[in-house]
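Look at one record.

>
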Amino acid sequence: MIDIKDLIAEPDKYRASQRARGADESVVDALMEASHARSSALTRFETLRAEQKAQGKKVAKAQGQEKEDLLTQVKQLASDVKDAEAAADDAADRLRAIQSSFPNLIHDGVPAGGEDDFVTLRTEGSPRDFSAEGFEPRDHLELAEQLGAVDMERGAKVSGSRFYFLKGIGARLELAIMTMGLDQAIEADFTPMITPTLVRPETMDGTGYLEAHDDVYHLERDDLYLVGTSEVALAGYHADEILDLSAGPLRYAGWSTCYRREAGSHGRDTRGIIRVHQFNKLEMFVYCTAEESKAEHERLLAWEEQMLGKLELPYRVIDTAAGDLGLSAARKFDCEAWVPSQSTYRELTSTSDTTTFQSRRLNIRERTARADGGKAMTQPVATLNGTLATTRWIVALLENHQQADGSVLVPQALRSYLGGLEVIEPQ
């Protein structure tokens, strides 16, 4: 959640953030009012409780009628304290409800607007001119079926629409891409993690993903959620802890199966494996100081671009508009690869700086030394995430490296992960 003290001190910048997101600016005033109401209610409760204790001490020393009168006062005070405590709890609950649904403060420079208002930061590589090569590019599903890599029909038979089997070279391709990404992460001092895919509600809520409750799977009997990214489990990994960041950021690379309902995407990308209910993903996750989060965000983006370069894919980097950031992110960069069959760029990776938003919800702090040598203080850490590989990468690889005969060239960097295979031939 956002820093309520900072919001009260500088409400205009939060109003500007809400305006850029296309969100309700009046919630800023509602938050300030709720914070004031909680403070007032808490002060009243603490004042009455102190008076109750003081009167209780007098009762012990009093006698006769004075004691009877004091007992009557103490009885009334006990009732007042109980009511004041309930009022303070209600005020705290209202403040938390508003605060927990209030989105993160965006960084300066984030473009305003919605999904289509992103800013392209740069374009790397050039899309192939298939017409100059004398053939029309096939889409990834046609290629995958000819290669014996994907079986959508049996996936639907077994599990329903938007499920699939990766088989043969399809399964090998996914493992090769994911393993190459993991090796790169290890070289960059990430700790590899295979994470739980079921998490408790407080973990899902702590990352801000319950906002997208229509897109997450909930197991009601167990009150557990299936994650849409290992970010959720990795964010909860250090919940309620004080971290030592004196040696630098803590970096984890989470490998997990992910699940999404894709509830808001009816009619979009229903063909193939672009938008599916289950997929595998390798996610970078970082804990660092709040002061270092912007620099770490640039590092995550660079690692993502390094992977795209290894797979020899043309892509662009976009600065996502404020209204498309989601609840937790203060800024998000997407890397979108060129998809020849659609003549457009499609997201392969995203990296988000969530600043201290998630750590405040999950109570994750760092201990910092004071300049005056006094007792060490604690403050919320920053968290960031970024994708290194996922099932969708197969789409871009097949389409961009296809040949006229339906074969697919294997990028040089990936060949060692496929036993030296240079060309994937149709079956």
Summary: The mean pLDDT is 92. The longest strand covers residues 278-288. Residues 289 and 381 are 5 Å apart (CA to CA).
